[in-house]
Amino acid sequence: MATLGIDFGTSNTAAGIAIDGVPHLIALEAEAQTLPTAVFFDFESYEMRIGAAASDALLAGAEGRYMRGLKSLLGTRLMREKRVLLGERLDFIDIVARFLSTVKTRAEAATGQKFDAALSGRPVRFHSDNDARNAQALIDLKEAYARAGFSQVDFMNEPEAAAQANRDALRPGDLGLVVDIGGGTSDFTLFRQRGADEIDILASHGIRLGGTDFDRSLSIGRVMPQLGMGSEIRHAFGNDTHLAPNAIFNDLATWAKIPFLYGPETHRAAADLQKFAVHPKRLARLVKVLDEELGHDLAFAVEAGKIRANDGKDGDEDPVIDVSMLKPRATLPLPRAWVRKRLSGLAEQIGAAAMETLKVADMEAEEVDRLIFVGGSSLMQVVEAALQDRFPQAEVHRGAALTAIVEGLALKCSSG
Ligand SMILES: Nc1ncnc2c1ncn2[C@@H]1O[C@H](COP(=O)(O)OP(=O)(O)OP(=O)(O)O)[C@@H](O)[C@H]1O
Ligand SMILES: [Mg+2]
Fold it and tell me: Has the keyword Nucleotide-binding been applied to this entry (predicted)?
């Protein structure tokens, strides 16, 4: 029975197998090794689109329902909620299953093999401090693999897979720390290189915090106030005012929650807020975003702004968030110094989680020879700074940001 290695990420998914002991990534998209973890239920063609095609349909303004970041919902009650999509009653486990089933079919078409088993990555912790939810998340994910047609699924901690893929980055005897900062979680593995392609895993640890939380924080800080978050609403009677409730704005800034806002209740609530708002113009933007289902377009705009702010240097022209979907040519400033300050608290939590990993193994920061950065959000300067502060003597090695985990999984999936 052939086994497919699958890194099912919050933002991106990849698959691979080993050929002659060398990891081989399977092209799941025409030209890319990774597939956006996104789906689009197209209401016109009645098709379910996956990956880049899903995001393209959303950005082209096609009529339908887009979802990204579904991994964040594993272990929550929302996973078992059913909704009617393209004439079928589906829960989110079905939706994840269809995504995984497409990965399976594409991998089979690309390799000419049949994959009945999967070796899947998993974050060390799906939910930081909630053991019951954590256990439930794994049950949900197992069920999704089963419904996708895999008769067997095993799991490997994502940072341990990255350690396997990067074992050559260490000299024999060296101590390495994998720092895998993804879209939804930050995961760490402390390991020692034993030589001859063997490593000892000493400790793994993780928290529920990743790039989508950076997006959320920037959106709440910069975009949501323009939609009326924190603004005053008059009482229906009398002259008193209260602040607009935060819930809608928080959800609108959270990738996985956006699809839940497109129902009549939220719409009514937003229309009421607009009616009594001291600044009705702002709340009118909220109503427009809900009406025209622009939540994901905003999230993409914030993510793009985050990456531009991170890529540039102080002194370059300050980046902006393109909010032209709200008003032609409109932008919101996103000064680099503001971004750094805004995200520093989250980066500190990531640094603290790295230290916690050492505690599990009863080791000190000075003993770590190398930091191995993987995951898209390890490219964030605030993350690198928080880690280098704590491990000033460690050399930094950058693994393949988006594919180190799947390479490690693939190593364990010899073909045929
Ligand atoms: N150049 C970049 N600079 C900063 N952040 C980036 C860059 N490229 C991608 N990202 C961020 O990296 C995140 C995705 O990383 P990655 O693909 O490693 O996550 P994932 O594996 O899907 O998620 P997880 O492992 O948490 O489930 C996104 O939040 C994205 O915005
Ligand atoms: Mg990942």
Answer: yes
